[in-house]
Specification:
about 100 residues, Helix Hairpins, rod-shaped, mainly alpha, about 75% helix
Amino acid sequence: MPIRHQLLREAAEKEALASTFTRYAKTLADAFNGIPEKPSDSEPFWKGPASEQYLTHAVRLRREMSDLENSCLTTAENLRRRARQLREEAAQVPDPT
């Protein structure tokens, strides 16, 4: 049978991990700040076929970063849900006598 303090410790660890996932997820969007996204923005840096290749790659990476952000936030919510369940389980563990 699980011991109350073990359940509470595991819940706290899951909450801490969820906070880390959330913090990192919120900074992912900033990774592309200032990076050209339109042909007119990239003209000073890229010309011709290289420009199209760059833009295609940048758009794909931005989409993947968005997917990663969503996955991190979903994982964080799942961890928080599990932490709540563990705290509820801990509350039901009888006191040792």
